[in-house]
């Protein structure tokens, strides 16, 4: 499969169509950690701005310029800027797949943070860093089920992906459309890896009979569950806990075996302020940086920082489904196109 084409199609979680500058866009410098740091991210703008402010507070004389955009937009911008890079680091993309593909385009480069230099490549089946340190995980995302606590009793909850086929959920279930949503595409790819393609397609034919809608947005099923338009849906953990913190009647189930991915950070190759980029990566992995992520209902990669959610790295690791990342990248377009032909 042409991986360049994959870059154009993957919308891994929060994909937008425009790139907006959320911080100041002043000129960068070669002045190291105290200079201007250009920080690219598709994650929540308020959260990334808070990360920038916290870094500046801990590093007098520094300035963090946050550049926000969807994962596709950021990757394509990095490709376009390859001969004259403007960014220093890239954080977040809804998981590791965009970073795995970016390695082949030589738009990111290796950096071994001193504090985590002894990290293994994998921990309990979860890949937590690149073999050559071209990216490192900052937090953990869990794919599972969001449910409406007013409509679903705890003893009814599904504990596995197969449990979603129970007649209890017919007409009361939603998942995003894999033709448009990276969250749903991850769901499909993981089931294909676990069951094989023939049995995997049989599973999704049955699952689609359960659904009352298949929206394009990865967050739409969570919103439908909160409104009572569905009783259960496919979501990442932080989506449910952010909504719960806002007062929505929702909660989250971690399936027995499910995709669990780290959300990485990487140093941009030949960026204008590499020392600043490295320093910011160090900050993201520090107790201070991890605490900001935790306060936004993410699961920190550091086990000495607690999330505001009931989940932790230690508690979710036993649920990790082994993932063949190379297979996922190689087959992304093909599986997505087959989905279109079968279900649209």
TrEMBL record:
Database matches in InterPro entries: Ferric-bd (IPR026045)
UniProt-listed PROSITE patterns: PROKAR_LIPOPROTEIN
Residues annotated as signal peptide: 1-20
Domain of life: Bacteria
Record carries keyword Cytoplasm: no
SUPFAM superfamilies named among the record's database cross-references: Periplasmic binding protein-like II
Keyword field: Signal
Entry protein name: Iron(III) transport system substrate-binding protein
Organism: Desmospora profundinema
